[in-house]
């Protein structure tokens, strides 16, 4: 007996199949039929695994053999043992996106002459196979209302073919489908949908969404596969749609300009010169100012001032960290050219500096 990451293609033993499946959280006893049950824990993204095909032997790796079929692992319908979740309209993707299989299922053979069990289908089975698509993202995930900047929406996609795990290039039909997203506003219910310009078989899983004119809201992004490309301004048309497995719902926000903010991380240090006396400070004041402003100038709209109680001491020749933190900045103009002033003080003296390095 042995547990394999990839089951051997020669001298494959039943014990090795059973133990490898059980190591992958399957429940398989000595009855070989149980290797073809849902409880077997088969990794459906392995290229080589049991599929429905009405032949008794199909996996002989000797290309000269009479029963050789180089694409047996695609099964009788070309979907590699998988059943994609069909959608009848774009909005159905909402109720069929759970972040895992998203409605896709694995069609295990049921036995008999039309769907025979073949232990040889496990030859080359990969226990750690990964899905062909992953990690849905929208960037930027926060934009100002009526901006002309599009939101780029994409997912990671493995390209080409792989001897161990499925890619979209392995699906004769699905490889010609298009990555798309359906976006729905949480509060006001406004919708947008679009697809990429080239198919997933070519490795394309990305698009740019025009958000100009979409109202202020948080938008949930649901991914799907479309039979034909669809521009954002196109009317709906009849086509086959599927969910996309292994992708979670993502969000982006459209906000009013005053709601768009950023955080600046900072660290204040103080050095006592050699030969100096020990200093103890109890107050820190930070001023985030426009670059043309001095420390004592009147505060302008958009600038930020923060005060902190501290208790920090430094002796001669010592550099100490006074405080670290983050500060929220609402003004986009201040972010373009921010000067930070720091002032440490006690009841009798104070020191001010503005040596700021933008990170």
Q: Mean of the pLDDT scores?
A: 90
Query: What class do helices, strands and sheet pairing give?
Result: mainly beta
Number of distinct helices = 2
Main sheet specs: 7 strands, mixed
Q: Quaternary state, please?
A: single chain
Low-confidence stretches: none
Bulk shape: elongated
Q: Spell the H/E element sequence.
A: HEEEEEEEEEEEEEEEEHEE
**What would you report as the Rg, rounded to the nearest angstrom?**
30 Å
Strand content: 25-35%
Level of helix content?
under 10%
Counted beta strands: 18
**What separation lies between the terminal Cα atoms?**
56 Å
Explain how this protein is built.
The chain has 359 residues and is mainly β. The protein has helices at 14-23, 332-336, and strands at 82-83, 86-87, 105-106, 133-139, 142-144, 151-157, 178-185, 191-195, 206-209, 217-226, 241-243, 250-255, 262-271, 279-289, 304-314, 319-329, 339-345, 350-353. 4% of the residues lie in helices and 31% in strands. Strands 2, 5, 7, 8, 10, 11 and 12 form a 7-stranded mixed β-sheet that branches. The chain has a 4-stranded antiparallel β-sheet with strand order 15-14-17-18, with no helix packed on it. The longest helix is centred in the first third of the chain and has 10 residues, at 14-23. The mean pLDDT is 90.
Summarize the structure.
The protein is mainly beta. The chain contains two helices and 18 strands.
List keywords for this structure.
359 residues; mainly beta; 7-stranded mixed sheet; 2 helices; 31% strand
